[in-house]
Amino acid sequence: MKNLNPLFLAVLFFLACNSSTKTDDSLSGQLIGEWRNVSLKVDIHGDSLTVFEANEANWEQNVGIRPIRTFFREDGTYNSAHYTLTDSLFMDVKGTWKVEGDRLLMFQNTPAPDTTICITVINGKLVEFDCTVDWDGDGAKDDRYVGVQRKQ
Length: 152
Hints:
8-stranded antiparallel barrel
């Protein structure tokens, strides 16, 4: 058996290590499908800091709607369907999405144009989105949203 070139071995080792590293494509691939809210926490910045939280046990009581159903599609489109407690669709947020590194970029078209960037971490069937948003509608994206959703 021939001796292998040390440079060849180093390149082979590098490629083997990198093949298990998550890439934009793997995060994108993992996001495709339906997700439903499990919990959320929003730090609302105003005159003082207010924290709004909901989880599976109190979601409907605290939020007043069913857990939001978000669908990420392979063609780069998404929608987030919002249902009342009587299962009537009252809002369907739509737009396009893409992944850059660990960031999910969502370009909302409906009901109004908006862009949201979230640091996104997937762990099994759960995804966490950490974003800066305008939760309180004051015109400033200064509220920190951390939401967890489960893949259906």
